Write a sequence for this structure.
């Protein structure tokens, strides 16, 4: 029995050692598994964070507004591509101060105020340079959980287009008021003179009343043209496109203008070839031909010739024109005549009952058909107005 004891002790010792080793190994395995889980967790967190940052970056990069983020020391942390375009930044500005990056003291003041006051809204900044860009800046200071200043966000909204439209609108209103006031003042003047006694002389009274009639007509034309322009510009008129026989339409316009042409001894020649058909809104195209032919009669040579022509273009489409043999248009005014209220000879236009809107209406109508207009002239030998339109296939 006693001789078995050392054997038993050795066996027990080996069993304990084996049990301890296998426990140790199990613990090691558990530790390794826990490490793997932790690593996976960290990895998935990193991936999620990277995903969120990618999404955020995509949002910032697609913004139409310029975005600039400054860190707590006022150094650029992020600038999106729109900001780069707005300020025409030649390089990466990250790490620079606001002043180093954009070189605008006013902007530095906005950022400083945003830090002091929390936010600055609606600050208008005129960017230096020839293109006269105007941007609106909104800035806000960002705070962390402990409410300490963590950075500044500046958002830049390009106002250039809005400002341009605003100035066009103001100019338009000023022009319209002027155009309305002029005939009204003349009418009032004649009425006062009539009331002061001119009415007692039938010949004078008739002459004055005819002048009043002329100016009221001008007011009516002006209102009609203003309505046309406003409809065309608002895009609220739908074109009723259909095949239109250009020669036939020009014939109708020539008929309408016959009396006016006769008055000035002008011959109207419809030289548009037969069968030339365009895809157009007939009423609007009639307005185009009317305005062009009416101008050719008004500004062309007394006793002259006004021709309405047209041809198929090799590259497709149709080109039409109206020409006269009058004094023509100076080269520097050839493009400007299509501007609203632009006149080469203001007094002449007024005298002829012009509104200064006829060619601008022509341009609008042709462009809304997808065509183009242009004027050519050799001063002293007349002017020709060309327009292009889509032809009707097979004609
Ligand atoms: P208006 O009502 O003054 O005729 P338009 O827009 O039709 O306005 O024309 C603008 C200006 O272009 C006219 O005032 C005139 O000075 C010039 N113009 C237009 N057509 C002709 C032409 N055929 N010959 C010479 N000048 C022209």
């Amino acid at each position: 029995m006693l001789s078995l004891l050392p054997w038993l002790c050795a066996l027990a010792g080996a069993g304990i050692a084996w049990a301890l080793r296998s426990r140790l190994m199990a613990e090691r395995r558990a530790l390794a598994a826990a490490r793997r889980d932790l690593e996976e967790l960290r990895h998935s967190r990193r991936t999620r964070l990277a995903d969120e940052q990618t999404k955020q970056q995509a949002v910032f990069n697609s913004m139409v507004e310029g975005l600039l983020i400054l860190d707590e020391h006022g150094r650029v942390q992020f600038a999106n591509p729109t900001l780069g375009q707005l300020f025409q930044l030649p390089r990466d500005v990250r790490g620079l101060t606001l002043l180093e990056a954009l070189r605008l003291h006013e902007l530095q003041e906005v950022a400083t105020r945003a830090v002091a006051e929390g936010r600055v809204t609606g600050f208008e900044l005129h960017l230096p340079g020839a293109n006269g860009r105007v941007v609106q800046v909104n800035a806000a200071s960002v705070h962390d959980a402990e409410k300490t200043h963590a950075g500044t966000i500046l958002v830049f909204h390009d106002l250039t287009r809005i400002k341009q439209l605003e100035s066009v609108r103001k100019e338009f209103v000023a022009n319209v008021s002027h155009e309305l006031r002029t005939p009204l003042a003349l009418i009032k003047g004649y009425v006062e003179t009539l009331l002061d006694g001119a009415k007692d002389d039938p010949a004078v009274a008739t002459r004055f009343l005819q002048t009043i009639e002329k100016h009221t007509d001008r007011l009516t034309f002006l209102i009609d043209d203003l309505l046309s322009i406003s409809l065309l510009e608002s895009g609220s008129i739908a074109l009723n496109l259909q095949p239109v026989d250009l020669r036939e339409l020009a014939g109708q316009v020539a008929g309408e203008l016959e009396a006016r042409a006769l008055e000035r001894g002008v011959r109207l020649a419809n030289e548009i070839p037969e069968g030339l058909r365009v895809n157009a809104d007939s009423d609007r195209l009639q307005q185009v031909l009317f305005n062009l032919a009416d101008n050719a009669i008004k500004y062309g040579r007394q006793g002259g010739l006004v021709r309405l022509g047209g041809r198929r273009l090799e590259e497709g489409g149709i080109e039409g024109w109206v020409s006269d043999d009058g004094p023509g248009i100076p080269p520097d005014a050839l493009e400007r005549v299509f501007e609203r209220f632009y006149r080469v000879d203001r007094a002449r236009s007024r005298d002829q009952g012009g509104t200064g809107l006829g060619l601008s209406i022509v341009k609008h109508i042709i462009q809304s058909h997808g065509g183009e207009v242009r004027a050519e002239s050799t001063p002293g030998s007349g002017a020709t107005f060309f327009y292009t339109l889509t032809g009707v296939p097979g004609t």
Q: What stands out?
A: The chain has three domains: 61-158, 161-237, 239-395. The chain has a mean pLDDT of 92. The two ends are 128 Å apart (CA to CA).
